[in-house]
Amino acid sequence: MHTLLTPLDWGLGHASRSLALARRLEAEGQRVSWASSGPAAEMLRRELPGQTVHELPAYRVSYPSKNMYWNVARQAWRWRATIRAEQRATAELVERLDVDRIISDSRFGCHHREVPSVFLTHQLQPITHFAPATAVYRWQLGHFDEYWVPDDPEPGRLSGKLSDPAGYENVHFIGPLPHLSPSPGTPPFDVLVVLSGPEPMRSRLEAILLPQLAALPVSVRVVRGLPAATATLAGDYPFEIENFADTARLSSLLTAARYVVARSGYSTLMDLRGLDKKAILIPTPGQTEQLYLAQRAQLQGWAVAVMDQERLDLRRSLERLTGAPLG
């Protein structure tokens, strides 16, 4: 079986869970080829030296506003064009690479009439609060033959109501796909900050976090989530800052950290639960899926959700998470 895997480029989460899926497929003797764009493609090229990552059209998503309706409205025309370009690029790759199956991690245009096409997602029921948007989403999913959900099927699943299979056929719960695994080697420290997601919200959160981190009486490491960056961050901070951490490095850092500060993207949550970590979760503003997942994690008792990053009080959030005042 030769599978073409196509992760979405809205951050690094889709690439990380697709890497976990690829490891599973290759352990079964299957062959995997890759196609992506943007930061996801940069990450894959760093994680898979020597392998070709074919270029797909980039969505170039940005979240300049907290109002997701405005963000979507101003970019929707370009995304529609990207989906059509994806279809053309996918058809070319299917013919050139002779693939037997496509697994699209949330790319609507990566399907083919003559090749079984799978949509990998934890969002069968997106929270849009806008019926036409939901209808368009489900229409796009109708082009695929199967739906693979990286979660367990029981009612207490990590993805909650987002992965409710009602209204779909051929839904398969394939179990969580954590990208990271326990890895000793880094001495224990207090707080690991993992930044990710579309700009400019990634940079905005970074600017909010760094001064607050510098004022805390705890040991800190920061991973900026910038696989293509080479320049160091301007400013002098009393902790280590890395532009990017590959799988081995991030696994070691996450294993050593007592607590984590991160976005509440689903791939991040799979890694945190897989390593049994407590976290401060800060949803990307306006991203309803992340808002829901952060609230759900807080209700389950393993996270503190900060629903508005502009009002972040990191000291107070850590005290809530640890149940004790900081010195």
UniProtKB/TrEMBL annotation:
It holds the Pfam family Glyco_tran_28_C. InterPro entries: Glyco_trans_28_C (IPR007235). Keywords: Transferase. It comes from the Bacteria. Residues 248-311 form the Glycosyl transferase family 28 C-terminal domain. GO terms for molecular function: hexosyltransferase activity. This is Glycosyltransferase. The lineage of its organism: Bacteria, Pseudomonadati, Bacteroidota, Saprospiria, Saprospirales.
